Amino acid sequence: MKITHVITRLIVGGAQENTVASVLGLRQKPGVEVRLISGPTTGAEGSLEIQFTNYREILSVVPELVRPVHPLNDWLALRRLEKIFREQKPDVVHTHSGKAGILGRLAAKRADVPLIIHTVHGPSFGSFQNGLSNFIFRSAEKKAARATDHFIVVADAMKKQCLAAGIGQPEQYTKIFSGFPLEPFLTVQNNLELRTKLGIAPGDFVVGKIARLFKLKGHDDLFAVAPELIRRRPQIKFLLVGDGEWRTRFENLARSLGVEKHFIFTGLVPPSEVPRYVGIMDALVHLSLREGLPRALPQALAAVKPVVAYDCDGAREVCLDGQTGFLIQPGDLKNLTKKIIRLATDPTLRQKLGRSGQDFVRENFAVEKMVDAVYNLYLKLAVERGIRA
Question: What is the pTM for the complete model shown?
Answer without folding.
Answer: 0.91
